[in-house]
Amino acid sequence: MRRRLILNAREVSTELTRTVLGIDQHFRTSRSAGPDKLDQEGLVPVQWSPLEPHPIDGWNDARSRLRTLLDRAAILPDPYERDWLCEQTLSLSTLVRWLAGESLGYDAVVAGTLRIDPHPPSARALQRARAAREAAVAAAGYGTYAAYADAERVPSNEVGTIMTELIGQARARTESRLPGLHLAPDTIGVKAVAGTAFSAYCDYPGRAVWVNTDIAFTRGDLKQLVAHEAYPGHDAHMSHRDALVRTGTMLPDGALVVTNTASSVLFEGIAERGLDLLEWREAASDQVAWTHGRLQWLASIEVAHGLNTGRLTATEAGQFLRDGCDADEAWIDAKLRFVTHGLRAPFVYTYWWGGTVVGRWWRGVRAAERDRAVRHLYDRMHSPGTLIAHANQEEPDDAS
Questions:
Q1: pLDDT digits over 102-149, tens only?
Q2: Which of the residues 56, 340, 350, 380 could staple to 22 if both were Cys, CB 3.0 to 4.6 A apart?
Q3: Roughly how many angstroms between the first and final C-alpha of the chain, as a whole number?
Q4: How confident is the model over 252-279, as pLDDT tens digits?
């Protein structure tokens, strides 16, 4: 008897979720994890799905399952559900091909997994980003970024205390400004770490924001970081999705955070634009932190592309970061490790691109439409394309 076609988005999403969990399981057992947190997290660093993984019998089996799912997603009747599930399945297909050892160039991996333009920034774009930062530094009353950073630097032993204070303020503001978000009942804490390949990390299950205290931060940097990792960024976003999946008002694949997929740009974009969503860029230091971060992400894309295509050596990449955005040595060390990581190498694009995609879209939202826009942003999984294409589509009361 011919198996019936799956035409229901919830069924397709369920099968996709089980397949991704199986692929993650296969990935974890097919290689030994290194000592760093990024080595240990697998393809699915965070998930709260009650579904069991589909056992995956090698990469060919994974590719076959994804092809079948793509065929089914492509004939779904709802435009958003069809587009989202096709985008995510296509990106996963590229990810699997890359992990299986297929000869894909770095540009093809970035474009195929993240659904964005893989080209590195132009010299003009980098110059504009640096000029924007210098203007913000001047507005803050300093002659150079180095002078600003030296004067405003937070001692490493005070980082945890200041972040805890800012997290409390950010949560209160999120509850007030974005009341539709379902936040975890406990406020996320802070954990100081060292020697990691990241500046900060949201450990949602462990209820802590990890912060690399090897890196120098200003108070403005910490405020941006708190909005990114905690409220209304990653912790708020995952708490909200967790609640919606558990109540059946979000498709089952919303229970997975998957590295290097169509969802990654929006996951980071919501976090990058956290202060804008809260209307909390008040001080001159907020603008310095934002423009400095944008310059750092653009420079990071340049060195990631250069290192992974052979245009730059590690020495050249480090010097570029040192000269181009006045980076300190601990940050440079972490960044070079991140952009050459066996899994995370493409992911560095998501921060600049996410901030750009969400920022452009949010600026076009009228004040009277913001509650509806927040639901569109947080209640659905998105690729860069689906965020914009389906912004005016009426959301259903619950996922089909």
A1: 999 999 999 999 999 999 999 999 999 999 999 999 999 999 999 999
A2: 56
A3: 27
A4: 999 999 999 999 999 999 999 999 999 9
At residue 5, the pLDDT reads 53
Tell me which residue of 79, 150, 95, 122 sits closest to 263, measured CA to CA.
Answer: 95
Stated pTM of the model: 0.94
Count the residues in the chain: 400
Q: For residue 1, what pLDDT band results from cuts at 50, 70 and 90?
A: very low
The mean predicted confidence, pLDDT, of the chain is: 94
